[in-house]
Amino acid sequence: MTQAAPPPNTPRLEDRINYAEVLPQSTKVLILVGTLLGLFLSALDQTIVSTSLPRIIADLNGLNLYAWVTTAYLLAGTAMVPIYGKLSDIYGRKPVLLFGIVVFLIGSALCGMAGEPWFGNLFGSGMMQLIVFRGLQGFGAAALTSVAFAIIADIFAPAERAKYQGLFGAVFGISSVIGPLLGGFLTDNISWRWVFYVNLPIGLIAIAFIASKMPILASGLKPKIDYVGAILVLTFSVPLLLALTFGAEATYGWTNTTVLALFAASAVSLVLFLFVESRHESPILPLSLFKNPTFAWGVTARFFLGAAFLGAILFLSLYLVNVQGVSATKAGTATIPLTMGLIFGSIVSGQIAARLGIYKPLILVGLALMVGGFYLLSTLNADTSYSTVIFFMVILGLGIGPALPLYNLAIQSAVQRWEIGVATSSGQFFQQMGSTIGTAVFGAVLTSTLATQLPVQLRAAATGQKPAIAAQLEAAAKSASQANVSQGRGNAPTLDDINAKINDSFAKTFGSVQTAVQSGSLNSITQNQLLPEGLRNGLAQIPPAALQTEQGKAQVLAQIKSQLGSAQTSALADAKTTYALSSRAAKVGFANTISHIYLISIFVALLAFLSTLPMPNLRLPKKGEGSGGEKRGGLASMEG
């Protein structure tokens, strides 16, 4: 492979500091702790907020802006990742990382104060304030995620990196376990505002470690800054993410004018971005990196990995709530087995890679397990046991675990030292874009498939049932095709609600009949079309003379009460049967829909596998063979 030429004004190799060789191990450990704490902040904030959102919405009266609390964070974070990576190559990891943490902490403090009286009408409502401040949080968090992974490559030799890359994957896994539990505890026992304030002490500790012990970790580059490229990254990614977000919503849809305009703006910005980057001396994203097969195929694989991974988490919770019938809290904690598998796979694969000096076979084995995990999940049905679901999740976690850190290791080992920051952040950018696009596509699949599955299952349930039950199921099938499936069955009436409505209806019917009987004339109710036809016909047969005495009225009322009682019992039995059949149909429909999504996930995971196959099978250099890409042309050696 041809060695990439360094950018203009690049110091000579012998003039640049090799931090992997000059820093003592104790300092490296302190830097690692500070970096992991910073990364933990960003990862935790993506999970801790979810359990507090219902309380936040109630306090700030912002149900209509619910999704934007998360969307604003992701928009700002995703768009800024490649920009921070390039800036860290130029100015050093330390200042960019410290800047990101400080901005993130300011955003956290402001999020905690959203809706307080002293903000007045700033940005409008309290919910809008929270959304703006979440965007500020995401703006800072992007520096944490993009720079943290590059620091590993700065302070550790390639032969050691694999051991520590696994720790970064473990941080994301641990945060996904701690986040929902801590968020629920703080919200229930203190205040939802502490979901954001809790970031402050952790962030200050991270700043102390980084400020006191971390060197600047600069590449020595002093090129011109690609301001136009940075702006075009924003004008490409933000409209694209907005279009995908809006397109997946029923309010807009994929053919909406606004959505199409956003896609067009994104496409124009992408063309301009490629034009500008091909001519700038130090672009935000050097297009020459795509000539490096490890980078090109690695970021492609990470794009598909991001799409498949996030889909696994989101739609598994939907399955557990709507099919297994577990609570939202239990559905959240049910992802812990997946996380444990991910952490184990991440750490163990890193240790194996460090010992064997290779990582491509480990990635492929992990992806094969991932495909197997998705295949198992594609067999989910309405009768799959909870323990079986847990087992499937562990398999999936073991497959995803090795891929997350080892792709970073592969990319970092294949590029020059001055490219590590931008190459690492680009991989993160592609993975986050994959997650966003995958979520939108899978969401559209969910809506369209469920809108078909529910009516089909309800009509299948009506087969062989008596006319009254079949009619109710048919009516349910018609309404199901137009329902907002994103809400699941959480708003559906319970059997107790239905029984109470039936009892109330019969009580009112008997009350109206009793009033008519006591008046001595049944004309008013025999003409009432709201009453059952059989009851009206029966009342019409009662001779007026029977209502002339109190004894006669009592006998008529007793007979009618008996008839209504039989009809009420039959109606309650029919309601129970209809409810059981419709509930079963809904569970089968949801299960079939989710299994269909996992079938698509198999295809996406296979694309990640196929994208990995062309990657060169690099061998990590052993100690003394070189710690950067310069002497090796980006490679230690290639096998096969």
UniProtKB/TrEMBL annotation:
<feature type="transmembrane region" description="Helical">
    <location>
        <begin position="386"/>
        <end position="407"/>
    </location>
</feature>
<feature type="domain" description="Major facilitator superfamily (MFS) profile">
    <location>
        <begin position="31"/>
        <end position="479"/>
    </location>
</feature>
<feature type="transmembrane region" description="Helical">
    <location>
        <begin position="227"/>
        <end position="248"/>
    </location>
</feature>
<feature type="transmembrane region" description="Helical">
    <location>
        <begin position="362"/>
        <end position="380"/>
    </location>
</feature>
<dbReference type="InterPro" id="IPR020846">
    <property type="entry name" value="MFS_dom"/>
</dbReference>
<feature type="transmembrane region" description="Helical">
    <location>
        <begin position="29"/>
        <end position="53"/>
    </location>
</feature>
<feature type="transmembrane region" description="Helical">
    <location>
        <begin position="331"/>
        <end position="350"/>
    </location>
</feature>
<dbReference type="Pfam" id="PF07690">
    <property type="entry name" value="MFS_1"/>
</dbReference>
<feature type="transmembrane region" description="Helical">
    <location>
        <begin position="597"/>
        <end position="615"/>
    </location>
</feature>
<dbReference type="InterPro" id="IPR004638">
    <property type="entry name" value="EmrB-like"/>
</dbReference>
<keyword id="KW-0813">Transport</keyword>
<feature type="region of interest" description="Disordered">
    <location>
        <begin position="619"/>
        <end position="640"/>
    </location>
</feature>
<protein>
    <submittedName>
        <fullName>MFS transporter</fullName>
    </submittedName>
</protein>
<feature type="transmembrane region" description="Helical">
    <location>
        <begin position="164"/>
        <end position="182"/>
    </location>
</feature>
<feature type="transmembrane region" description="Helical">
    <location>
        <begin position="295"/>
        <end position="319"/>
    </location>
</feature>
<dbReference type="InterPro" id="IPR036259">
    <property type="entry name" value="MFS_trans_sf"/>
</dbReference>
<feature type="transmembrane region" description="Helical">
    <location>
        <begin position="194"/>
        <end position="215"/>
    </location>
</feature>
<keyword id="KW-1003">Cell membrane</keyword>
<feature type="transmembrane region" description="Helical">
    <location>
        <begin position="254"/>
        <end position="275"/>
    </location>
</feature>
<feature type="transmembrane region" description="Helical">
    <location>
        <begin position="135"/>
        <end position="157"/>
    </location>
</feature>
<feature type="transmembrane region" description="Helical">
    <location>
        <begin position="65"/>
        <end position="84"/>
    </location>
</feature>
<keyword id="KW-0472">Membrane</keyword>
<keyword id="KW-0812">Transmembrane</keyword>
<feature type="compositionally biased region" description="Basic and acidic residues">
    <location>
        <begin position="622"/>
        <end position="633"/>
    </location>
</feature>
<feature type="transmembrane region" description="Helical">
    <location>
        <begin position="96"/>
        <end position="115"/>
    </location>
</feature>
<dbReference type="InterPro" id="IPR011701">
    <property type="entry name" value="MFS"/>
</dbReference>
<keyword id="KW-1133">Transmembrane helix</keyword>
